[in-house]
């Protein structure tokens, strides 16, 4: 089956990110196709490339990136939710005159329309809230 | 059949009431994260009306030291069981 995950909880504040990651790994292990993870509301903080948690703790940002590389999962970040929280990729940083950027591939800034598209295109959409 | 997922304990949140109100006669409910507290004998009464259709996530019970402490009416599933429930359900609705 084709799955998508909607993640709305901030990493390290709520269990949502860990729950979503565990569910995502179980999905691909069972042979399902996980098309995308859509990061929305405080969930966009999962895309911060500057995250540097202690080495003996799970690194959520890297874990999402690994999942994307190993299983072709698209990591889509709501651009409106991201910009207002200081999460900008290179292009948006330039556009807003900011030094540096905090979002990099495989995460990509996209619009809410992509979430609607996932909802209609995938067989299942599972939400993890804060 | 819809799968409802609740991540709040009935001791701290009344969102379970909204989930129960929204549930159809064939729907099932899975407790995850702090929601697994609702599977304990002293709290499971809140879910009395869906007896036999209540599940709790094994990993989240274990993380809280609650494995083996669930009410007998609750079906414990691991994350693979969670996936299976989403396969079987037409849609999944999360309450938080």
Automatic annotation (TrEMBL), chain A:
Pfam families assigned: DsrE
UniProt GO cellular component terms: sulfurtransferase complex
GO molecular function terms noted in the UniProt entry: sulfur carrier activity; sulfurtransferase activity
Biological process according to GO: tRNA wobble position uridine thiolation
InterPro entries: DsrEFH-like (IPR027396), Sulphur_relay_DsrE/F-like (IPR003787), Sulphur_relay_TusD/DsrE (IPR017463)
Subcellular location per the Swiss-Prot or TrEMBL entry: Cytoplasm
Keywords: Cytoplasm, Transferase
Enzyme Commission numbers on file: 2.8.1.-
Domain of life (superkingdom): Bacteria
EC class (word): transferase
Entry similarity comment: Belongs to the DsrE/TusD family.
Alphabetical list of NCBIfam families matching this protein: PRK00207.1 (NF001237), sulf_tusD_dsrE (TIGR03012)
Name of the protein in its database record: Sulfurtransferase complex subunit TusD
Organism listed in the record: Halomonas urmiana
Origin organism lineage: Bacteria, Pseudomonadati, Pseudomonadota, Gammaproteobacteria, Oceanospirillales
From TrEMBL, chain B:
SUPFAM superfamilies on file: DsrEFH-like
GO CC list: sulfurtransferase complex
Pfam family for this entry, one: DsrH
Origin superkingdom: Bacteria
Protein's name according to its UniProt entry: Sulfurtransferase complex subunit TusB
Keywords noted in UniProt: Transferase
Transmembrane segments: none
GO molecular function, one term: transferase activity
Source species: Halomonas urmiana
GO biological process: tRNA wobble position uridine thiolation
Gene for this chain: dsrH
